[in-house]
Amino acid sequence: MQLRTTAIIVSARQHGETAVIARMMTVEAGLVAAYIAGGRGRTLRPVVLPGNVVEADIRSKNEGALPFARLELTASRGPWMSEPLPAGAISWMSALTASVLPERQAYPALYEALGGALEAVCVAPSARGWLPALITYERLMLRELGYGGGRGAPPPDAKSGEDLTALIARFEKLGRAIENYLLAGTFGDVMSARNLLLGRLKRMDA
Q1: Domain ends where: 43, 76, 109?
Q2: Which residues does 163 contact at the CB level (< 8 Å), separation at least 6?
């Protein structure tokens, strides 16, 4: 495998004393796992945060081997990880992507939607500005993986001027389809990230 591309970090797991195994969403190859030498070091630790956008040079000697990757940071989500709502949204979208997509299968629409939703979280002045993009990403994930948006899911398009309370209700209702179809039985810890975000949204809207 030889690929140089823009990628979105969706997970980073410690490997040995100094390295990490990062999973990255790419437009050409979908979800790709790669070994990042020195990923726990001072220089690369802030680069391999979930949600970050990087330029990745990914290479492996043969098709079955775990690739090595070199990364250059393009856009950092670090400044938003100290804010509960943005941090919850970034963590949830990253965890969902890393957990349910098959590796090395391209989903260009999901790549674009994930990038757009993450950017919305970082530029919108409030959750009302980015929650529609997050909901759109979840619905697209269901469709791309063959579930058609999920039985009982809310209508796909938000109404013009829909307030935060209505958006939170949509988000909560869609959670049943996410849990029953994408995360059924084996990903309770991943769903807990969504439940944490939902709780924060409800407290803000109370």
Answers
A1: 76
A2: 128
Q: Write out the chain's pLDDT in tens, 206 residues.
A: 899 999 999 999 999 899 999 999 999 999 999 999 999 999 999 999 999 999 999 999 887 789 999 999 999 999 999 999 999 999 999 999 999 999 999 999 999 999 999 999 999 999 999 999 999 999 999 999 998 754 444 444 545 467 999 999 999 999 999 999 999 877 778 999 999 999 999 999 87
The verdict on 107 and 19 lying in the same domain is: no
Q: How far apart are alpha carbons 76 and 8 in whole angstroms?
A: 10
pTM: 0.92
Which residue segment(s) compose the domain that 12 sits in? 2-76
68 and 103 within one domain: no
As a whole number of angstroms, the distance between CA 54 and CA 44 comes to 11
Tokens of 184: 């059924």
